[in-house]
Amino acid sequence: LPDLSVFYPSLFAIGVDDYSSESDVIIIPSALDFVSQDEMLTPLGRLDKYAASENIFNRQMVARSLLDTLKEVSDDERDCIAVLERISRLADDSEPTVRAELMEQVPHIAMFCQENRPSIPYAFSKYLLPIVVRYLADQNNQVRKTSQAALLVLLEQELIERYDVETKVCPVLIDLTAPDSNDDVKTEAVAIMCKMASMVGKDITERLVLPRFCEMCCDCRMFHVRKVCAANFGDICSVVGQQATEEMLLPRFFQLCSDNVWGVRKACAECFMAVSCATSQEVRRTKLSTLFINLISDPSRWVRQAAFQSLGPFISTFANPSSSGQYFKEEDGKNPEDDEGTGDELNRTEDLSSHVDNDHFATKLENALEDQNTVSNNSQRESDFQTESSFHCTLSSESCGEMADENERSSHCCTAGLREAGLNSQETSLSEQELYNSFHFWRTPLPEIDIDFELQQTSEIILDREFQELTMPVSPNIPMATRKELEEMIENLEPHIDDPDVKGIVKMLKHFYVFCDVVPQALLDQYLSMTDPSRAQTVDTEIAKHCAYSLPGVALTLGRQNWHCLKDTYETLASDMQWKVRRTLAFSIHELAVILGDQLTAGDLVPVFNGFLKDLDEVRIGVLKHLHDFLKLLHLDKRREYLYQLQEFLVTDNSRNWRFRAELAEQLILLLDLYSARDIYDYLRPIAFSLCADKVSSVRWISYKLVSEMVKKLYMASTSTFVVDLMNELVEKFCRCRKWSGRQTFVFICQTISEDDCLPMDQFAVHLLPHLLHLASDRVPNVRVLLAKTLKQTLLEKEYFLNSANSHQEAVEQTIMVLQMDDDSDVKYFASIHPASTKIADDAMSTASSTY
């Protein structure tokens, strides 16, 4: 319709203006009337005519065709300004649908003005921006939503000058969030302020947005406003930085986390990780961890659910790269993942602002509109559930009791390894000379340790008392040993380090100090409790899946030295009854292997990996997609054990699951670098040949690439007999196949080998070319069509066949001459045309192949 109104204005003139409600008939003017009425009008004349129409539909069409009108008059600056002035008048239309339609076009018009009218840089600021900010307070909801979406798009594309943001946009938003402002408008304005923070930068946000944002966090009258603030709290923190977050925002965040509306607290739990990232380690440990425990123990199930989902990400913010052990092999100190580099990702990042077209704008507007609609929908839904907060308050004591019980059950997990290590150090008995030393009689008193004990029980008593304090279950009334107490213990024991027992104790205390310095024990206890079956009933049925999803991040935070704390949890998740939980672990097991290192991977992850190999296809696909990433981390002898199991990937629960086989082919290409030539020939070759004969063409295409890479790998090996045997088998299995599809596969493989230079042309000419040329007499036209295309567009483009006169070149030319006289017209065509002389050549594949 917009295009018709511009290019065919006479047709656009027919309609409601010519419709008589009394007679219920449409009066159709003659063709001469079309010419006399509209065709003789200028673009501005048509714009004026229909903008003044009493018909709403006509004015909507005018708004929709404004960009096209601008393009028509783009050569005349005065006409462009005249169109912009008419836009300002159209913005005063009393019909909301016209105003909404106009606002949808503003980003497109703004981009056009920036790209095509640089001589009038004030056009957007003078004519368009005032309309956008005025519509933010429009009485019609749809107009407001459209203007909010347009504003975000304009900011994202940097079409609004910084000065205009400070003087025209922000003041309007501040006014809209005033105490006496309309409730809906205030809520929407707060959401816009939060979303635009990352676009306008730290300076403007901190000076103009932050003070009003802090006020809105304390809005006592409207919980909708507080909820919007809570939902966007992390974004504001990430923009303003650590100092402003800790000084101005954290007090407000504490208030929101204890809000009397559960929806506000739930929003706080969801953004907890982002807030944590904007604070110091000390604040994160001393303040945020305690606050998070309160959310996890919240009376509302919805708050607890959100808190447990954010628990793993929150723990990951405690990570210290210097102590998390990110290198896989200690002996070479190199992370295999570093080989893949990040250059490609950086190169793929482009500035799209100068390449935005109308479709892109439309997508941005649509997405922004959806985001705006969710604010009002969620607010409405929130009011329906407010009563739940008071209902769950009666269960708070029960919930806290359950949490304490679970903490008791899980608090000993992380200390089991430490206790075992400490007891092992006592196995050697003391000699008579060691029974008396200065430590037993002359020492600085240790905190909370009874000094009245017998000499023969020295080690046992010290260990028991230390571990009782350090591993005390988390409880409000019984605090754990603090970092300061641990430091005092270590300091008091240091002068007596010569004693073997003391040395073992100091070692364990330092180990536990390092652990306490990573993650607060209370947080870890809650994370470990996520596998408790009761959690699925009291919190979330998918809580185990959330636990599995964040486990690599938690493992990275704790470091491989504390893996024993997570080992039991990981094994529990790996055997979970829900396949979605196991699938989540399967997709991340290769990442966990990098974190843990080769020894822990071989001992703890390989058995789990083996179990996933025999699981459902939904789980196996996670292992298969990262098969190369996992196997490359294993030692060669362990890696070779999986050669025998690769064949099992050809069998799936559903034979129609062809994507599974396609992924197998992709992974086998990568695995070629991990195995020797003999292993490739003995184990990978049969699988590759099987995939080349797959029923689905997408699987076969990847398999051709697999075979060609296999040829290249075997040729580069020291033993050349493997590649010769492989090519002979290609000839026997495919070139001489009784089915035409097998013979066609041989041509495809030869084409791929030639195109990718997997084999020197002289070797190709000796081992494969004679058999390839023999197919010129194949009885199936599809085979001959592909052969003609391969010879003409691939082989004859190689230097070996261009610049050197040899018998192979002559054989190829003779074969082409035979194909040029073929009875089939398609064969004759592809054998006759010059390579790349026509686009029809690109369709040869579709002619010569089948999907099923």
Question: Which characteristics define this entry?
Answer:
2 strands; flat; 852 residues; mainly alpha; two-stranded antiparallel sheet; single chain; disordered N terminus; disordered C terminus
Per-chain topology:
Layout: H1 2-7, H2 9-13, E1 19-20, E2 25-26, H3 31-39, H4 43-51, H5 56-64, H6 66-72, H7 77-90, H8 96-116, H9 123-135, H10 141-156, H11 162-176, H12 183-200, H13 202-217, H14 223-231, H15 233-240, H16 242-257, H17 262-270, H18 272-277, H19 281-296, H20 301-316, H21 343-348, H22 358-384, H23 387-393, H24 396-410, H25 413-424, H26 438-441, H27 458-470, H28 483-493, H29 500-516, H30 521-528, H31 533-538, H32 543-558, H33 564-574, H34 579-596, H35 598-613, H36 617-625, H37 627-631, H38 636-640, H39 658-671, H40 677-692, H41 697-716, H42 721-735, H43 740-755, H44 761-767, H45 769-774, H46 781-793, H47 799-802, H48 807-820, H49 825-832, H50 844-848
Antiparallel strand pairs: 1-2
GO molecular function, one term: protein phosphatase regulator activity
Biased composition (Basic and acidic residues): 345-355
Subunit structure: Serine/threonine-protein phosphatase 4 (PP4) occurs in different assemblies of the catalytic and one or more regulatory subunits. Component of the PP4 complex PPP4C-PPP4R1. Interacts with HDAC3.
Structural notes for this entry:
By secondary structure, the chain is mostly helical. The protein is 68% helix and 0% strand. The chain contains 50 helices and two strands. It has a two-stranded antiparallel ribbon. The chain is flat and about 90 Å long. The N terminus and C terminus are likely disordered. Serine/threonine-protein phosphatase 4 (PP4) occurs in different assemblies of the catalytic and one or more regulatory subunits. Component of the PP4 complex PPP4C-PPP4R1. Interacts with HDAC3.
